[in-house]
């Protein structure tokens, strides 16, 4: 009986098909970034393809060697048609499972992202957690931009923004799934970072070398872009994200500094205040940090008070700039919707907007400097 079972199992194995549909990995083109544009009623799709043999980190890899970047471009009446047309001339099968970034031009952001969102999410290979950016640069320039030391584009801020953004940026990277969640959540200020190219800061052999730089953020409501805010306008937003690990401020200001302070990991809270047919808000920030430089003999307690004033001032300035552009940068409306949804619906109406310059009644900030470096207290 045992031999019969073994014979039957072997016979069944002979009936199983082999890997006839398998493909050699070296015979596929791996798309790492997707660019989207909209012009004259046509969607324009870009695909960035990298040769992983050139960017794999091995002992024989030549640091600083040229890394070729291939960019495909096609158009269509829909995003799906535009993306599909790229396969007709790619020569190799395009594999979309390694897409890490989606970059959308300002034109398509203004036209509306609902079609693009639907098309991209129906591609089974493209993951939900890819990064998304907006830009007003030429898409060819964005997708062919190199990293420092001519390293792979995968080592640039576009693909790996986390460590840098958490230290020098007033906003954090945004994943595509978080963006979709935000635009479908009433009161939530959906935001997409704006990526640009800096042409002045870096040189190689006395020749200017462009590098990626964050330039601001685009804000959305109901899948439609509302407006764009610059980095300077967004400075107060950094105190609302606990993912910000290192934010430097000059005390009391850049023109007459007496100290430089590093702050990070703020704790941000919002208290909605309902007053008749109007909602007002009180916000509170608690943040810890350390003394980076001291130019004049001020005590730690004095520096904490001055730092708190600067943080509060930045938040108020960002709030006013956001209200002028109808962008809820401090996420006040979202808090009202979550705590008092009925009241929010009553006040927001069809425009889903309730803020005015008087909506923010108090910004309370507490700064704690936990150390002063190797020097203790005053110099």
UniProtKB/TrEMBL annotation:
GO terms for cellular component: membrane. Residues 216-373 form the Spore germination GerAC-like C-terminal domain. Keywords: Germination, Lipoprotein, Membrane, Palmitate, Signal. Residues 22-191 form the Spore germination protein N-terminal domain. It is a lipid-anchor. It is found in: Membrane. Its main location: membrane. Residues 1-22 form the signal peptide. It comes from the Bacteria. InterPro entries: GerAC_N, Spore_GerAC-like, Spore_GerAC-like_C, Spore_GerAC_C_sf. One of its GO terms (biological process) is spore germination. NCBIfam families: spore_ger_x_C (TIGR02887). Belongs to the GerABKC lipoprotein family. This is Ger(X)C family spore germination protein.
């Amino acid at each position: 009986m045992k031999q019969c079972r073994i014979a039957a199992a072997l016979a069944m194995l002979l009936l199983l098909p082999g890997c006839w549909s398998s493909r050699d990995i070296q015979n596929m083109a791996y798309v790492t970034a997707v660019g989207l544009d909209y012009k004259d009623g046509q969607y324009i799709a870009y695909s960035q393809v990298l040769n992983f043999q050139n960017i794999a980190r091995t002992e024989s890899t030549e640091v600083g060697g040229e890394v070729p970047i291939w960019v495909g471009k096609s158009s269509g009446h829909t995003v799906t048609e535009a993306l599909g047309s790229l396969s007709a001339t790619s020569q190799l099968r395009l594999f979309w499972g390694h897409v890490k970034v989606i970059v959308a031009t300002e034109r398509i952001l203004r036209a509306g992202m609902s079609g693009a969102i639907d098309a991209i999410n129906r591609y089974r290979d493209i993951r939900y957690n890819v990064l998304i950016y907006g830009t007003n640069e030429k898409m060819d320039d964005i997708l062919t931009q190199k990293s420092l030391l001519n390293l792979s584009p995968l080592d640039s801020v576009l693909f790996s923004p986390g460590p840098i953004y958490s230290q020098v940026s007033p906003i954090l990277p945004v994943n595509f799934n978080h963006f979709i969640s935000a635009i479908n959540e009433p009161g939530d200020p959906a935001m997409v970072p704006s990526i640009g190219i800096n042409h002045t800061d870096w040189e190689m052999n006395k020749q200017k070398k462009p590098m990626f730089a964050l330039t601001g953020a685009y804000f959305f409501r109901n899948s439609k872009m509302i407006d764009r805010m610059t980095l300077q306008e967004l400075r107060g937003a950094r105190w609302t994200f606990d993912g910000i690990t290192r934010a430097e401020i000059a005390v009391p200001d850049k023109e007459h500094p007496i100290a430089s302070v590093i702050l990070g990991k703020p704790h941000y809270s919002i208290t909605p205040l309902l007053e008749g047919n109007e909602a007002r808000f009180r916000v509170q920030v608690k943040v810890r940090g350390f003394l980076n430089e001291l130019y004049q003999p001020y005590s730690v307690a004095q520096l904490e008070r001055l730092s708190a004033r600067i943080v509060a001032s930045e938040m108020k300035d960002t709030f006013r700039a956001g209200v002028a552009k109808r962008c809820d940068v401090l996420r006040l409306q979202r808090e009202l919707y979550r705590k008092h949804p009925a009241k929010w619906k009553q006040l927001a109406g069809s425009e889903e907007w309730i803020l005015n310059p008087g909506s923010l009644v108090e910004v309370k900030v507490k700064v704690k400097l936990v150390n002063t470096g190797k020097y203790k207290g005053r110099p």
